[in-house]
Amino acid sequence: MIVSAGPAGAGEHVLAGARLFRAERYAEALVEFRVAERLGSAQARGYVGATLVKLDRPEQAVEAFEAPGAPAPGDDALLDYYHALACHEARLYLRADRLLETIGARAGPRIGELARQVRADIAAALASPPSRAAIDWYLARCDDNAAGHAALARAQCEEAAALGARRADRYGVAEAHSRAERLKPARAEAR
Amino acid sequence: MKRTHLLIAAAAGFLMAKPVLADETTEAKNDADEALAQKADVPAKPPVLPDQASDRARYVHDNIAFGKKGDAERLAHSKAESQGKSDADDAEHDAANRAAHGAAASAAGAANADSHDKAGRDRSNDARNPTQSPTTPSTPRR
Q: Is the CB of A5 less than 8 angstroms away from the CB of B43?
């Protein structure tokens, strides 16, 4: 668990960002959290991701959460919940489910209950095997984002692989794995 | 001796400042976590797997059939209609102008013709009755 909000100076901006976030002034909160991030606060990168979720920019949020230096899944249950929301809104449902699964009661009873609800919705939506068209959609997005948004592209290829694995014919799995492998793993750089 | 005192004071200051800094950053983190927890909610949209066909259909609906393109076409039609009306108004105005000019020219032409006729009649009368001609100079008889 990361305890510090960052080096000297960053804490001030995290406080300002928190105040603005509470007031639902998300665009301004984003600026404060970004300043804290630049001052060296790793935790602030997670707050940037959470704020991007609130600003309805889920794909950018996924990139923020999965960028090198961001808090790793499991470090902070609350940030894991926002990371899962970012994945959910970016249609990375199986990725979201994996994150939500680990939250349990770590983030308190309220967040735990929200996580349970979201998981139930995902389970209902993915009850039947996904169509080939759905898997193609993720593969196409993975290709589109491969050049400038490697972390997002990799997440989309991994989603395609996970969805394909739910079909009897494992449609697209090998292709998705091979494309995901070609993309530089964002987290491997950081750790 | 003085230098030693300075070093001890600096070290004490550093040791005291470090917990203060840690307190500040912990406070910032706690405050941010509280704000994030307070505003956490379930996703706005239900989970729906995408597929190329439905996305294309949505795109067509939003942008071509009834959406943006439809609006754009309606706007273009409306503009064309008002432009057409305006053109028709202009044409009508031009035609009226042309008619007025024509009428004026015709009236002027008619007036000119009347004047020519009158001149012709005068000249004919003069030829028949030369003494009455006002233009003939009269010489006194002695």
A: no
Tell me, yes or no, whether B130 lies in a domain. Answer: no
Give the one of A47, A81, A133 whose C-beta lies nearest to B51's C-beta: A133
Q: Which of these, A77, A69, A94, A75, lies nearest to A157 by C-alpha position?
A: A94
Tens-digit pLDDT string for chain B (142 aa): 566 665 555 555 555 545 555 666 788 899 999 999 999 999 989 999 997 555 555 555 555 544 455 455 555 555 555 554 555 455 445 545 555 555 455 444 544 545 555 554 555 455 445 444 433 333 333 3
Burial of B67: CB neighbours in 10 Å, binned 0-12, 13-18, 19+? middle
Ordered by where they begin, the domains of chain A are: 10-125 (1.25.40.10), 132-190 (no CATH)
The verdict on B63 and B98 lying in the same domain is yes
Residue B17 contacts A where some CB pair is shorter than 8 Å: no
The answer to the question of residue B117 being in a domain is no
Say if B109 falls within a structural domain. no
First to last CA, chain A: 16
Domain of B97? 55-104
Interacting residues of A173 by C-beta distance below 8 A, sequence separation 6+: A161, A164, A165
- The count of structural domains within chain B is 2
**CA-wise closest residue to A51 among A72, A27, A73:** A27
Which tokens in the block code for residue A32? 């404060």
Quote the CA–CA distance of A39 and A61 in Å, as a whole number: 20
